[in-house]
Structures are given as C-alpha cells and as structure tokens.
Design brief:
The protein is mostly helical. The chain has 13 helices and no strands. Helices cover about 65% and strands about 0% of the residues.
Length: about 240
C-alpha cells in the first residue's frame, strides 16, 4: 500500500495525469450505492410516502381509509425517526377520522420529540373532531410531555384553536389551565403562556405576570376587579433614542 501511494505521488510530481478509469479501481474511489436488492432505498421510500399523502388529499373516502392504513404501517415498521416524520407529514394531508386517532397515538407514544412535534402540528392544523377533544389533547401534552419544545408548541396551538368568546365555558377552562403555567420553571413556557392568554382573552397585559395572575384570579371569581391594561407609554419601546441620552 505504501508503495502504491509513493508511486502515485511520483506520477503527480512528474506532471503526468492519471486516468479516471484507473482511479476508479482503487478502493478509496469505489462508487457506493444505498440500494439493496429487493428493498427500496430511503430516498425511494420517502418519495412513495409523500406520493401517498398527495393522493390522499383528493381521494374518495374508501381510498383515504386504505392510504391512512398504509401510512400507519409505514410509520410502525420504520425505526428511522426521519422516515416516521415523513409518514406523519403525509397523514396530515389526508382528512379522515382514523387519521386523527393515529396521530394522537403517535403524539402520546413516540419516543422522538421531533416526531411528536410533527404529529402535534398536524393535529393543530387539520383536526376533524370536536374542538373540546383537541383542546384536551393539547392540555395533556402541556402537562405530561417531557420535551420543552413539545410543551411550548402545545401552548401556542392552544392559543390559536381556543374560542375567543370569554363567556364560553371552554374559553374559561383554557384560561385557568394556562394560569397554572404562569409560574412554570421554564421562562420560555411562561412567555408563550402570556402570548396565548393575550389571544384567548383579548386583553393586553404584555409580559406582566402579576397582571396576568390577577386576570386568572378574576376569571376564577377570586377578586372583583380586572387589572388595568397596558398604557400607551408602557407599549412604547423601553430603549431611548441616542438623541435623548
């Protein structure tokens, strides 16, 4: 091997070109392939999964049921989390009640947080069941998921899908659940909670946790008055312009 390397260096130093056909015969230049006889390559399998999702978006009811079952089988038989995410993304495109049930199972059971995030996004965008059911799923993830990003996304989606009528019992339930998160140990969760509370309540208390806590207590009937919303001065940027420094 050493002799071979020395010979190659001498050829290069002498200015002679080595033909590609000779280089190709060396082990270092051997062409590699991801194809295994009798099996689809990862690239081919990804294309098949994506195509099933596209077909399901416009298929009839019976064909959708078949495609959902096939994609669930793809998900269940693939150890690669990236391919499982592809299956989840394809399922998102197929409106079907069975799809919702499978996405919920994936959200609860998959050990990869990125797969759970994909399932969460799919449910938030395309859930076909009752609003109360979706909200219950989101609250469960907020309380039980071990991954911070899954919890954060659940809080964000909760703010998007909750009815904005503050007289609605579901709205009140969500407000009180979000109130428990105002003292979460993770600052990002507290911040996202205040953003969702602003969407759900229609109130503008900015990032003032004390005002939001008073709003929660008011909603729960513990105090008689709402806290004051932010003034125009409070909404102004806190960094002074250079000319006023």
């Amino acid at each position: 091997m050493l002799l071979l390397v020395l010979c190659g260096m001498s050829v290069l130093l002498s200015g002679c070109a080595v033909e590609n056909q000779y280089l190709a015969k060396l082990p270092l230049f051997e062409a590699k392939s991801d194809k295994i006889p009798g099996l689809d390559s990862p690239h081919e399998r990804k294309k098949i999964i994506q195509e099933k999702g596209k077909m399901g978006a416009t298929a009839n009811e019976s064909d959708r049921e078949i495609l959902v079952a096939q994609l669930v089988h793809e998900y269940q038989t693939c150890p690669d989390p990236n391919m499982r995410r592809e299956a989840v993304d394809a399922l998102e495109k197929i409106p079907h009640p069975d799809r919702d049930r499978h996405l919920q199972n994936i959200l609860r059971q998959d050990d990869n947080p990125f797969v759970r995030l994909s399932s969460l996004e799919a449910l938030g965008k395309t859930y076909s069941g009752q609003q109360e059911e979706l909200i219950a799923v989101l609250i469960d993830r907020i309380k039980t998921d071990p991954d911070k990003d899954v919890r954060l996304r659940s809080v964000r989606i909760l703010g998007q899908v909750t009815p904005k009528d503050t007289r609605d019992d579901l709205n009140r339930t969500v407000v009180l659940e979000l109130g428990h998160l105002l003292q979460d140990k993770i600052p990002a969760v507290r911040y996202e909670t205040m953003q969702s509370l602003q969407k759900v309540s229609g109130k503008d208390y900015g990032n003032d946790i004390n005002r939001w806590l008073q709003y929660i207590r008011y909603t729960n009937g513990e105090v008689p008055d709402l806290p004051p919303e932010r003034t125009m001065a409070e909404k102004m940027p806190s960094v002074a312009l250079p000319m006023f420094k």
